[in-house]
């Protein structure tokens, strides 16, 4: 993994968050050592990644849906998993007729390859939802700090009807560049 990449930075952040969570629950685990044994941070990290890569988000938080993790992702599929939190049930709505034995593909969401790698452990070629994150460091003490931020907003924030999009945080801009036909806009 490239150390300067956003995926690397997110991985380091997720790992440190899991370590903090483990430190927070460790006293409880120790009080139930007869049930959990010597449950290490490595064990906790393994459990978190297993659940996190298979969990589905809902209005009431994450849930595990039996057999839903058997369905693979296809970014252009219209088949989706729909959940009713109140009834505590989920169902897959197919996007077309399938023959027996054919793999049913669903869309996990409109995710970039970075998100697919971090959350699910894979990427897809020619992902129409891919993004490039560009890290910028504009020091607050820079006398042109405000002007530089204004210029970035003025020239890089697209109009609402543009296929390009940009999200801005303190020092990072994520630019999505794609067209509906999958061609990259240069």
TrEMBL record:
Keyword set for this entry? Methyltransferase, S-adenosyl-L-methionine, Transferase
Listed GO molecular functions? protein-lysine N-methyltransferase activity
Q: Which InterPro entries match?
A: Rubisco_LSMT_subst-bd_sf, SET_dom_sf, SETD3_SETD6_MTase
**What are the recorded Gene Ontology BP terms?**
methylation
- State the superkingdom: Eukaryota
This chain belongs to the protein called SET domain-containing protein
**Record organism:** Pisum sativum
């Amino acid at each position: 993994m490239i150390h300067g990449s956003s995926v690397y930075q997110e991985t380091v952040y997720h790992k440190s968050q899991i370590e903090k969570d483990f430190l927070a629950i460790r006293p409880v685990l120790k009080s139930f050592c007869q049930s959990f044994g010597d449950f290490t941070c490595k064990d906790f990290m393994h459990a978190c990644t297993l659940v996190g890569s298979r969990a589905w988000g809902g209005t009431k938080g994450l849930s595990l849906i039996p057999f839903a993790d058997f369905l693979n992702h296809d970014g252009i599929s219209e088949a989706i998993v729909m959940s009713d939190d109140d009834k505590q049930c989920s169902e897959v709505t197919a996007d077309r007729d399938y023959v027996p034995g054919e793999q049913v593909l669903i869309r996990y969401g409109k995710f970039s390859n970075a998100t697919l790698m971090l959350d699910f452990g894979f990427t897809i070629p020619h992902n129409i939802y891919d993004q490039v994150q560009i890290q910028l460091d504009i020091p607050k003490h820079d006398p042109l700090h405000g002007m530089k931020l204004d210029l970035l907003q003025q020239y890089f924030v697209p109009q609402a009807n543009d296929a390009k999009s940009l999200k801005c945080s303190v020092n990072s801009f994520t630019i999505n560049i794609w067209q509906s036909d999958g061609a990259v806009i240069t």
